[in-house]
Amino acid sequence: MNFKELNFTAEVLEGLDAMRFEKATPVQEKTMPHIIAGEDLIACAQTGTGKTAAFLLPILDKLVRTGHQGTNTLIIVPTRELAIQIDQQLAGFSYFLDVSSTAIYGGNDKDEWNRQKTALTSGADIVVTTPGRLIQHLTMGYVKFDQIQHLILDEADRMLDMGFYEDIMQVVGFLPKQRQTLLFSATMPPKIRELAKEILNNPAEVTLSISKPAEGILQAAYVVYDTQKIPLINSLLKDKDLPSIIIFSSTKSNVKEITKSLVTNGFNAKSIHSDLEQAEREEVLREFKNRNIQILVATDIIARGIDIEKIDLVINFDVPRDAEDYVHRIGRTARAQTQGVALTFINEKEKLEFHKIEQLIEKVVYKVPLPPDFEDGPVYDPEEIIARRKKGKNKYGNKRNFKKKSGDQTKSE
User: Fold this and answer.
1) Helical spans, DSSP H, in 220-271
2) Is 241 exposed, middle or buried (0-12, 13-18, 19+ CB in 10 A)?
3) What tens digit of pLDDT does each residue of 140-179 get?
4) CATH entry 3.40.50.300 includes domain 3-208
5) CA-based nearest residue to 128, from 162, 157, 164, 91
6) Are both 3-208 and 217-380 of the same fold?
7) Domain ranges (residues) in the chain
8) Out of 32, 49, 175, 200, which could bridge 27 as a Cys pair, Cβ 3.0 to 4.6 Å?
9) What Rg value do the Cα atoms of the chain yield, rounded?
10) Do 10 and 96 touch, CB atoms closer than 8 A?
11) What topology does CATH give the domain 217-380?
């Protein structure tokens, strides 16, 4: 579908043309007619499919056509990185429009707080925010959301995973009951359905490619011992001409260790983790986006909050704790129908977890042999692991020992 078929205003189409947006992606094609019609919507689509534009463009078009006084649209997201990303996209789409927006998030100084307060009290047309920081402003009494016409929850599943359900419901209590509500999520667990029943009114539903990696991603894995992981990264990246690489790890200690090793070996690498101030994190992301940094090493804090084109390689230093997080991590590459590579390192304790990922994505990921100068890694045989668990052994192959104490059974492993 061409965007002109949606009858957007000339001003909106001019912005799309400037950003080289020509044809709608499947998620845009299926969701935008519902949004334009004013329906509530629950949409399930993986990262990298263009869902941000799917909800921004119809809202901008409505603002151009009708004008507005006060805040018209509230977009709630799980992380400050995603809030910044959406605000940046808004700036691009609305370059030729008389529409104002602001990003509201925590982790900043007094001057930033005052900027946010000014934007909220002056009535920015579109507010993009994290739940916690918005509640801080709302409880001060100066925020007026009585004119809100659109509420959008993006990455709703991640917000619930992070424990934001009560915060979301508290924010909803400040909004008019008569509004259009849009819920976008990469997955659709029961808790999302429960949230939808609470805040949506007879919603339309759109589901695309639940928990499946993009077709353009070449997936592979290495089965390794923990001590082999960092040497393997250095070996794989040596003499490789890959301009843009992301390495994900579940812990900030690993992130720091990986980055230190890469820098020591002459790679242009920097990291993002929770010990950095917000301004530092934004600067690292800006450098990476501008290709001034080749390798970004990060915790899951940005797994769903980074929107950078042409990432050549994603490496999972460890298997994601949640099988669906695997899809989000590797979704940083092969965005918008491009090609990319995703590699995962599996240690001896993570075999069953990775097998669950393969079941989720309905695909057996190729296990690449280690380079010739490496010792052999663990044997990957998930069927054997499952069989052992059924026979009373844990996932590491150890027997479960039960000791009776006062009639109770105490398990020790």
Assistant:
1) 226-237, 252-264
2) exposed
3) 999 999 999 999 999 898 898 888 999 999 999 999 999 9
4) yes
5) 91
6) yes
7) 3-208, 217-380
8) 49
9) 23
10) no
11) Rossmann fold (3.40.50)
